[in-house]
Batch of 2 targets.
Target 1
Amino acid sequence: MSQYHKTDNLLQEQSQKYYSRLIDTLNNSKNQFLLFGEKSIFNNEDFFLHNHTNVEIVWCKDGKCENCKEKMPKPLAIVNQVPEIKTIDEQNQPKNKASDKSWSDEIDGAKSFRLELSPYSILTGISGETVKLYFRVIHRSWIPLEYNFHCYDQMGLIRSVLPTSVILPPNSPPFDVMVILEVTGPEGSTDEITFSVLQPEFETIKINFYIGKLTGDTTRPTIDYIFNGDCRFADTPHTCASEKWNVEVTIQDENSGLAMISSIPNNIRFRSEFNIGTKLPVIIHYTATCCFPKFEIIATDLRGNTNKKTIDAEKQYLNIAEIALIVLSAIVLLLLILFLIWSIIRCQRRKRSRDFLSR
């Protein structure tokens, strides 16, 4: 058998094992699963179906269904691709090339969902008003999952949470949970509201709800940072992987309060607690190897004012021209100060001379 056919059979075997592992993970005897796959990846279709009786295969070619009875089949779970299988030569290649430097060397998104505050939420209200908050759940899993929700606050403004539980199927659109508030309390006070996903994994969001009218605000949030590290000489695959850099960022909006903090890559760690709507400084930390020198932080306040700052670890150092300009500016400033002092002394001496002659 030729080397080409050996490689082809190996890919088929590995692909089939991959699908088997996924189906075994989903293995609930009452469920039926539609499996989308190319015929070319199975070298023994009958054997596979015999071992997985709860699977109906929908054959596809170039990503399009060949034997679908419906244009839009509705499976409980869809397995639609095999991860790319690399050859031995590709596996032996260096992971990071100096020319391929990008945003991050870490994978984001281990959780099966993402929780965030919907932009339709209103975080201010006056006493007597009914206000609605929307907490958005973005389902990432390729199996159906049941979600349970809970929400509480310090001032007792919450009247209902709709719904308190839901089952989200694969590929479902973002789902908004509505929290209804009856606003009571003195103007200028702040209520801390905590919304939690209890199941399938625990995740929580805290927000500051302000009682009163939100004043006009056109000022963007402030972003300041402290950089640590040295990537000047880490410009090869061997040196950049062994050198690290980090940045500590302080973000604040003293006017309307912070609505959202995001980053590219999305791998920041909060040093202080972040309540949506807070007017206090929020400190975040980010670290990476010198193979991935770029980092972008985006901050938005409750009025929609946005500030963005890009940090490049390779451009945190001054070149010779910039250093020379700073030194020259310092010398000029020093000369101006000396000239000012000399002028003052000279004026005083002239004044004394005139006073002496007048006597």
Target 2
Amino acid sequence: KQEEDTTDEEEEEEEEGQARSEHDNEERNCETETINNILLRNVLEQNKILLNKLCERDNACNNYKIMPDFNKTIKVFNGKEPRYQARAWLDTLNGVANLHKWPEAFKIEAVRANFVGAARNWLDGREINQWSDFERMFKRTYIGPDDMGEQWKEMLRRTQGRSEDTEDYYQEKARMCRALQLPFQILKTQILEGLWSRELSDHLLSITHKDEDDLRDSIANYERVNRARRERINNDRTQQLTGNRSTAKLNLKKDAAKESEETMTCFRCYGKGHLASECSRGPSRRTTAQPKALGIKIKCYACGLEGHISKECPTKLDKACRRCGSQNHFMKDCPKGKDKDGEIHIINQENAPKGKYIKPVEINGAYTVHGLFDSGASDCTMKNSIARKLRLETKSYRATLSGFGGENQILEVEEAVPLVLGIDGVLGTEVRVLIVPDTAQVYDMIVGRSWIDQPHIAYYSRVGTLKVGYSDQNPFKNMQIE
């Protein structure tokens, strides 16, 4: 029994020894793994540091920076811009530099490339090595301290130009108001006061807006509707102009067809069936008895009395010149007026003076001639050669033009033609155009008050400009008066 007990104790001790041996082995293995992990982490960390250094060395050797196109990113600065524009220019340059990660040398070179005029002279007179020095000197010279009063004045001076796009004006004006931290209602008032179009300002004033985006949407909608309306009106006016041309041609043909031989009277020979321009008989055969026999009242254009013509006037002296008073020749042969007439007659279309009163005149929608816009002339006149060239069907018409065709001259008109005239796309009603000799005027045609004073025609004259429009369409409402 004692031997059995001894054997059991020995077995227990042996088992305990084995257990302690296994535990010791496990502890040694854990310590070994921990040491290996630490060594591995250290090796990995060293490899990472070495790899980063190699990458930095490669970047330092192969780092190429591309300079962008300054014309598209940075505007030219001349030193005369307002303060807010100078501040915006500097912010733009810093933004581009930060985006492309420019070094300071690139920033300074970008400044040199975009400074012109007075700003370039300012830059050349200073030694700048660091970007911070440039910013400090630039802000001191061109931006200065924040002056709310000056910013307010600049905002008030910003108004929309006559041909400026509304979107460009709106965005810049709104930015200036935001810089002053103005509430939206004051911002809206300032924008509306600076608009060029009074109609747009009144339209926006009658609408309640919540914010800037709401205001901009209203402006965009108004511009879109107004643009569509103008296109429609222009198309309708073009169609109306085309229809008026066709109607004018048709009316002229009808008038010519109605003019029968029985109603045609020649005021040269007082015969029937032809006009004075087609008369084969000279004016010397015209007598007082012929119009009296036809029941036509005649009037002397020399003395103004009725009953005789000027060649039979008893008060008219033979060979009397009305220019110089000599009784040895007529006015047409007067040597005193030859030099002056010569000076007038040598003026042709090439050397004729060109100015705002010289306008292309559209005739019956089919022909165009050069005309003189003359508000001092009572009637419209046309050269005889132009009427023949255009094959216009003239009618007999007797009139006297005083002070026309030269100094102290009286011109007797024998023909006229009804025409529809147009200037600058504005058509007038049919007017009577008097046919005068080519020597009486320089231009192909003179447009007088018989066309100008029509109620639907309006015009204004400024320095170097003469504009004609329809009076019912307010053509000059946007005219800028200086």
